[in-house]
Amino acid sequence: ENNKRSRRNLGLDCDEHSTESRCCRYPLTVDFEAFGWDWIIAPKRYKANYCSGQCEYMFMQKYPHTHLVQQANPRGSAGPCCTPTKMSPINMLYFKDNQTIHY
């Protein structure tokens, strides 16, 4: 029996047709070929994605430091909240000085 509580994934995935105003992950594909960056061998494109949207007031109350900031300056910003929770590096294969291949 596993008594551990699991963390809920509250992230929302949206697209260009979404009407969601809350913080959401939107698709973004970076296409090196479309940029004309021919020195990049691989990958030719990758999914970068980005976050955009508003955070609910109650979400911000979860953190003591943002609660204090809101109490001190109720009309001010409570700080960033619609940000990625995970980021990953990408491996790239590219030409350097038009002659050597780097990884």
TrEMBL record:
It is found in: Secreted. The keyword DNA damage does not apply. GO terms for cellular component: extracellular space. Its main location: secreted. InterPro entries: Cystine-knot_cytokine, TGF-b_C, TGF-beta-rel, TGFb_CS. Keywords: Cleavage on pair of basic residues, Cytokine, Disulfide bond, Growth factor, Secreted, Signal. GO terms for molecular function: cytokine activity; growth factor activity. It holds the Pfam family TGF_beta. Residues 5-103 form the TGF-beta family profile domain. Belongs to the TGF-beta family. This is GDF11 factor.
